[in-house]
Amino acid sequence: MSYFYVVVLFIILPMSVLAEELDKCGNNAEAKALVKLIKEDEGQRRTSLRCNQLLTDVAEAKAKAMSERGLVSHNLEGSPNLRLRNANYKLPSYYGVNFNSNQVEAIAGGYSTAVDVWDAFKKSEKHRAHLLGEIEFYKEQDEIGAAFIEKWKSPHVEYWVVYLTKGYRKNQTKSDKITEIPNKNLFILEVEKK
Predict the structure, then answer these.
(1) Which of 64, 108, 114, 194, by CA, is between 20 and 30 Å from 30?
(2) What pLDDT score does 178 carry?
(3) Helix (H, G, I), strand (E, B), or coil: what is residue 149?
(4) What is the pLDDT of residue 162?
(5) How many angstroms separate the CA atoms of 155 and 109, rounded?
(6) Beta strands 143-150; 189-190: pairing state
(7) Strand pairing category for 158-165 and 50-51
(8) In what helix (H) or strand (E) does residue 106 lie, and over which residues does it extend?
(9) End-to-end CA distance of the chain
(10) Of 123, 68, 78, 70, which is closest to residue 104 (Cα–Cα)?
(11) Which of 113, 146, 106, 148 lies closest to 129 in space, CA to CA?
């Protein structure tokens, strides 16, 4: 094997692995761009974020449900935490189980690009704290998936869903540093299209 071939392999292989990993992050180019913005933001407090295909699939189903109803709401067909549990995603046992429990979901409607919705998320204290891991509870969350749906005959046209949560590990317990479990069920971002 020639030296040139080996060098090309070492360059191309990591790029293909990175592209495959990014594919798990979002259902399309805009959703992937949003995840990239979240991961690479200078304010990101997490050391790593893994893409999870199941989170992306659930985010896409949620974005479609919002677009079909013309609503931007956390509690469509149950709480965000319940939505993940119903999809067989194992949340830590200390995550909420009530009808309005949300430690995992960020949603928005009416933002045309990943940059626009990311700017809006960052201006919202609760969304920024979640997506950048600004408090200890969120900082330990290490898996992400996102979706973006456009539906022209729907009130908001664009619908965004991000799931960012703690991946399951056996015998998982809450860190001693966590003194509160936030619930962001009422925090949504909407821009109605004219």
Answers:
(1) 194
(2) 75
(3) strand
(4) 98
(5) 9
(6) unpaired
(7) unpaired
(8) strand 105-109
(9) 61
(10) 78
(11) 106
Rounded mean pLDDT, 118-139: 96
**Dist CA 33 CA 23 (whole Å):** 11
Give CA–CA dist 160/13, Å, rounded. Answer: 31
Judging by DSSP bridges, how do beta strands 189-190 and 105-109 pair with one another? parallel
Q: Which two tokens stand for residue 80?
A: 């965000």
DSSP 39-101: HH-TT---S--EE-HHHHHHHHHHHHHHHHHT---S-SSS-HHHHHHHTT----TTS--STT-
CB count in 10 Å sphere of residue 69: 14
Please list, in sequence order, all residues whose beta carbon lies within 8 angstroms of the beta carbon of residue 181, skipping any fewer than 6 positions away: 94, 95, 96, 103, 137
Distance of CA 101 to the CA centre of its chain: 16
How far apart, in Å, are the Cα atoms of 25 and each of 10, 32, 44, 125?
24, 6, 17, 23
Sheet holding 50-51, edge to edge: 50-51, 143-150, 158-165, 105-109, 189-190
Checking DSSP bridges between strand 105-109 and strand 158-165, what pairing results, if any? antiparallel
What's the rounded mean pLDDT across residues 157-168?
A: 94
Q: Please, which pLDDT band fits residue 137 given cuts at 50, 70 and 90?
A: very high
